[in-house]
Each structure stands twice: as C-alpha cells, then as structure tokens.
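Problem 12. The chain below contains 176 residues. Write out its predicted structure in token notation.
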Amino acid sequence: MDNLDCYIEAPDGGVCFLNIPWHRLTTEPTVAKDTGKELIDLDEYLVRQIAENQNPNIRLCVGRQRVLLPVSTEQFRGKDGRLRPAWKFDAINGMAFDMAKARELTMARVRHVRDDLLIKEDKKWNKFNGQRNDIERDKVEAKRQFLRDIPATAQIEVDGITGPTQLDSYEPNWPI
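Solution.
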C-alpha cells in the first residue's frame, strides 16, 4: 500500500498527481513500529489533502479504487505541466493520455510563441520601413512569412508524434 499512486481529477477533467511522502508515512502498523514512520489512515489523509486544496469539485482517484495505467511521475508532469490537461481518467481504463487534447495544447503553445516572435519582427519591420531600408525590411519580411507558416508545418509534425514524452518536448524549427 505504501507505494500507492494517487491522482486528483480536476473539474476540467485534467489530472494532478498527489505526492504522498511515503518516506515518512505508512499505512502499515508494523512498518510504523519498526521504522518510526508516522502511521496514517489513508482515507483521512487524502480527505485532508483535498480539503487543503479547497476545491470541493475535485474527485480523488486512488490506485486501489481504479486501475491506473503505469506512468512515471516525470512523464505525467512533463515540462512545466503544460500537458497536464491531456491526462484524463477513463472509467474503464483508469488514467489515460488524450493525444488529441495534447496535440491541441502543443499547437496552442506553438502559436503563442510564434505570435510573440511576430510582434518583435513587426517592430523591426516598421523600423526598417520608416528608415526606407529596403534590404533589412525584406529580410524581416521573409522571417515574418516564415513565422506565419510555422503552424501549418508544425501541425503536420505534431500529428505524426505518437507519445506524450515526444509531444511534450516538441519544438518547431524556429528562425534565428
């Protein structure tokens, strides 16, 4: 029991990993006696953790209540938790990764980064246009066009990715 994985399902259907500090807690009386770990009632502990989150709409999904697909904490969290909303609980399979949702999140991130880069390039274009520097303005215009094309090329690449780890680390070919 002391290696139980616990996840919290948020109102949006996304999943959060609940880290239980098993290095200092246990649910087994003999382990508590032998090791000095704090003996806890798991149900009470989990209710307390949920209450501290102060969100009455979340549901707890514990390994002993549902069949969870094996997944490493690193794979679940990913980079900055940006694909967390793609992890869902399925009534039949337990924890599952929604690749369609993950692709959608990845493309939204790509567009956001691209938009920020376009704003910077627009400023450069305006500067060079005002200076009537056609050579530099044309270089910036080519970069702007490349940035505008990134979502189309990135979508093809993202659609070809089959795993959450690869999708989480995906970056398109950004211009320099």
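Discussion. Confidence is low (pLDDT under 50) at residues 54-60, 62-77. Students who got a different answer should revisit the alignment rule from Section 12.3.
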